[in-house]
Fold:
Amino acid sequence: MTEKRPVIQLGSYESLHTSSLCYDVAWHSENRILVAKKGKMDLINFSNGDCVESSILFADHPFTIVPYIDLIILGTIINGPKVEIVVHDKELNIVKSWQVEGTACDIAVVDNKVVLSSQLPGNLRVFSLEGESLPDIIWNGTSAGIAGCPPDSVILADGKYGKIYKKQLTSGNNLWSADVESPFSVYVDRNGVTWVRSNEKNCFTLIDPNGAILRQLKNEELKKLGEILGIMVQDDYLYVCHDNGVGRLQLHYS
Structure:
């Protein structure tokens, strides 16, 4: 794949779906997105008048969605405190599910492994796609946001200390770190660029695959939307989910 030129500006915000408290957004297929909400996950066709094509209901709420090859992996908070990891196929049928003691706030999937983050200091829990517990990744920081960065790595957002880390799974080593004030959501695009959302600063920080900060991007319209909880980059658009729904901003390149 030919690497695109650097993103230098965000376009105007375009609303795709209005709903209260959306936690995460993920790509499903052409003109279709998955949206995690309180109590359910919706498959939305935004080319057909914001049509909800199907839904999966939950007793509590899903907090993150990760597409992986032909699967969709969902993290859901349940009572306990526990976390349930649910693996779906593209038709949203359940393939596998398992529960994990403790709390988590995000998951990443890379090299057929599911990695759980946590807002509390502690090791990163790791599982196979079949739910088998694998050795923890040693980690003493917090990790509010996490994203897969193949091969064999994840990106961690440590909101407490204002750091972004690239951590190798097999060795547990930090491959690089970058200073980003108040990081929250993280996403790695197809070019290996890490996108970091800082709600307190109302900006996105872009980091290249080697850990160098490329630039910060702002859009004043996003201030009106409330807290941005999940982000995704797809087909020259930045998708964001927030307190009142899901929308996108076109990416303009140099």
